[in-house]
Amino acid sequence: MLLKRICWVFILVIVASASLHAGPSKEAGKELFMANCAACHNKNMKDNLTGPALAGVEERWSAFPRKDLYAWVRNSQALIATGHPRANELWAKWKPTLMNNFPGLTDDQIESLILYIKEPGSGPVKDGPKVEEKKEASLPWVFIGLGGILLLLAFALMRIVDNLANVSRAKDGLPPIERSMYQVLTTKGAIAFLVFATVLIFGYKAVDNATRMGREQNYKPDQPINFSHKIHAGVNKIDCQYCHDTARRSKQSGIPGANTCMNCHSAVKKGTISGTSEITKIFASIGFDPITSKYMEGYDNWSDKQIEDLYKKWIGQEYMASNSLTSLDENGKDIVENQWEGIVKALKDDSNGKIQGPIEWTRVHNLPDHAYFNHAQHVTVGQVACQKCHGKVEEMDVVFQYSTLGMGWCINCHRETEVKFKDNDYYKQYERYHNELKSGKRDKVTVADIGGLECQKCHY
């Protein structure tokens, strides 16, 4: 009788599981979006990020069969290759940024994503430093359900064993043994099951947390100087490699020194938006007198009072010139004091404790020590655009880490990114691939084809 009841419970759990999974749902869409889409698409669905804003995606694809939208999500480049008008319209606007492929998504899962995109349940992202969300991930209900089923089965089996033992005892003329719940739970079988369940649960949690350890996606720290990539790389079209010169010829992209900044700012002494407040920090770190346009000799030995007098004079002078004044008013005095305090905070609260010296920027992107990444190999040899990994930096006022920089993210890129064989002498050694491309046997070569998935490429 007990076994029959257990079977009924088991059947009810399976039916409930099937009903919960039947059809698309907004909750499932949210999980899919966070796992697959959030790295490139804005969570508020209204603003562009690395990829386009997703709000209104149904309307934009309404002129085409639903299956075309499914095909786009699963493999965008394959749909582009067919000449699909909507797919090519998107590609023309967003190339060379590639969308990841998701061939494993079912129609219902894609519909769940669309339901979540319609009503994400979150407002627009506010300006300011973004902090990585650290939510305590709960165990999936499936594992909890399976654990409950195993517990019921284990209990049923123990009762069956007890009943069989009592039948045997009855044949021998012995009285049956009725065990209490405590005695049942302290048997070797029950203890073994509890140990197994504990190891399973904690093992799952350990692996789940380990895969997310050190992930700093959306990390956007405050910097000593409010440097805007949007103004420099976007408005003024300064090439990334002008400042990050070593990206094309070494492992690191490098942080430019103040001398690089001074190539322009010895002439451009006031910011478009910030005026004197931010650029003066560069002058103070390197010892440049913006009034005379000369570098000060022996600046390393200057006292804080000498530095303060010089740059307060400069800030006040510019304020009076901008406001057609012959002397500082109260507002001007406040501005001078506030800007000087900003200079001290940005430059003196660091490792050397002096205003003079290198600007100590806060690192944004960081890989674990066991992972090898070479900028020159990607930028010069692979001809990979900076935006591929760092997003549209030219649209960022403050740079943040837009991608996970996880192993799966890198491997997906290597699987999907087409190697630019044309006019690249480095790839002349791959004679077989060149011949296959010429004969039509192969239409492209990916990074994976030339060893991009070998463990030693990134771990050695």
The CATH homologous superfamily of the largest domain corresponds to Cytochrome c-like domain
Radius of gyration: 32 Å
User: Strand percentage, roughly?
Assistant: under 5%
Number of domains: 4
Please give the largest β-sheet: 2 strands, antiparallel
Order of helices and strands: HHHHHHHHHHHHHHEEHHHHHHH
- By oligomeric state, this entry counts as single chain
Reported CATH architecture of the largest domain: Orthogonal Bundle
What is the class of the largest domain in the CATH system?
Mainly Alpha
Portion in helices: 40-55%
Alpha plus pi helix count: 21
Instruction: State the end-to-end distance.
Output: 60 Å
Q: Mean of the pLDDT scores? A: 84
Task: Describe what you observe in this structure.
This protein is mainly alpha-helical. It has 4 domains: 2-118, Orthogonal Bundle (Cytochrome Bc1 Complex, Chain D, domain 2); 141-211, no CATH class; 256-348, no CATH class; 406-460, no CATH class. 50% of the residues lie in helices and 1% in strands. It contains 21 helices and 2 strands. The protein has helices at residues 2-21, 26-36, 57-60, 66-74, 76-81, 85-94, 107-118, 141-171, 181-185, 188-211, 229-235, 240-243, 258-265, 279-286, 304-322, 330-348, 375-381, 386-390, 407-416, 431-439, 455-458; strands at residues 288-289, 294-295. It has a two-stranded antiparallel sheet with strand order 1-2. A hairpin with a 4-residue loop joins strand 1 (288-289) and strand 2 (294-295). Helix 2 crosses helix 7 and helix 14 crosses helix 16 (330-348). The longest helix is centred in the middle third of the chain and has 31 residues, at 141-171. The radius of gyration is 32 Å and the shape is extended. The two termini are 60 Å apart. Residues 122-138 have low confidence and may be disordered.
